[in-house]
Predict the structure.
Amino acid sequence: MAKKELDWANIGFSYMKTDYRYVSDFKNGKWDEGHITDDANVVLNECAGVLQYSQSCFEGLKAYETEDGRIVTFRPDLNAKRMVDSAKRLEMPPFSEEQFIDALDKVVSANKDWVPPYGSGATLYIRPVMFGSSVVIGVKPADEYQFRMFCTPVGPYFKGGAKPIVVKVSDFDRAAPHGTGNIKAGLNYAMSLHAIVTAHNEGFAENVYLDPATRTTIEETGGANIIFVDADGNLVVPKSASDSILPSVTRRSIVYVAEHILGLKVEERTVRLDEVHNFKEMGLCGTAAVISPVGKINDHGKEICFESGMEKMGPVIQKLYDTLTGIQMGRLEAPEGWIHEIKVD
Ligand code: PLP
Ligand code: COI
């Protein structure tokens, strides 16, 4: 087989059915060994736990083709671990890290022709998902679950690629204080749908959520963590006052890159909305978002404009972006254990 013929440079961030996916079922107290299938559909009883009480969690990671033609993934062990944390918090049976990596190897190698070519601007987005599949009518966890891992080639999450976006301060919360904001539960995203539709209708690319306890500090957006650069060129990373920010793999990697590769000072602390005007640069970071620069925040009609402007990324975020994507795509040497190569036959 050969690479699929797609207009790689112009695909958006949307689902495209690829050839194969991995499925494992949890029944009688254990996960089965899993298998690859070409069936993208799931048939469930109308009373399945996921349909009644939203018992589901998911992950997101990417596979990249390197310049020398290898296929690599970025820190998948952290996605596997976060999925274990999500499952435990939702009373779902954890899917082991070893089986997660085995599923990843199988899905990506089975779909190797869908991995976008090096330099095309597209990547293969991988979506592991787990849900309660057996019937539940009283409020309790399901007895049976399904884990799936599928993939789809994607382009940039925000239209315009690396062009700065405008975000708004949301009046809604995406998570409760000490609730499920720090895990990747599907229900967090259901919570954010009305807010994102509202923001899009008003012309904004994303919502900035404030901490749900006091609504005075910056948390994250609906699909990415936030980073700032202060007037001294230091990286400032918001910390949640109510443990409701998702621990982004990308953000944790950026903090490491900033401190250990670029020699920047990093402050991880609560960031008040009323101090944001002092920062020079802002970015959204995540698997889908990569690092997307923010030019302006709209806070109820008042604009907070960053010095980096609406034309291009600021200089510090550009350096972080170049280093992070250089590591992800094999152009730069990665810290030990960050790159997991997929063996293909
Ligand atoms: N925050 C939210 C709410 C997200 O959905 C995501 C996406 O996964 C992130 C942050 C970024 O996390 P990661 O870098 O692990 O993809
Ligand atoms: C990801 O970046 O993987 C996410 O899950 C974010 C989602 C909004 C696409």
